[in-house]
Amino acid sequence: MDPSATAFPHRDAAFSFTVAPKWTDPGRDDELISWAREFHEAMSPYAADGVYVNYLDDEEDRVRTAYGERYERLVDLKNEWDPANLFRMNQDIKLTV
């Protein structure tokens, strides 16, 4: 399949990795947030550029970055096929019409 034929730009990635630490003791916030940030930094050299769009909230700038060069094509499709913006939840492609 042509990698540029779909909206998802990371078709060649072998793995998807998420770190989601959780705890119940607010007294450990600083310690565990620091651990998560340090772990993220340690893994960064091995990560692909960008972000998987389904890991985002409605963060317009990051959604645009997640789709990369495909974003403008998705805007065109959104304008044509969803001009009423029915599909506007989560990682929305913004209309330009």
Describe the structure.
The protein has a domain of 47 residues. Helices cover 35% and strands 0% of the residues. It is built from 3 helices and no strands. The longest helix is centred in the middle third of the chain and has 15 residues. It starts with 28 loop residues before the first helix and ends in a 16-residue tail after the last helix.
List the helices and strands and how they pair.
Layout: H1 29-43, H2 60-67, H3 71-81
Report the sheet-strand fraction: under 5%
Measured distance between first and last alpha carbons: 31 Å
Largest beta-sheet characterization: none
Using the CA coordinates, give the radius of gyration. Answer: 17 Å
Unreliable stretches: none
Order of helices and strands: HHH
Overall pLDDT level: 86
Helical amount = 25-40%
Compose a concise summary of this entry.
The chain is mainly α and 97 residues long. 35% of the residues lie in helices and 0% in strands. The radius of gyration is 17 Å and the shape is flat.
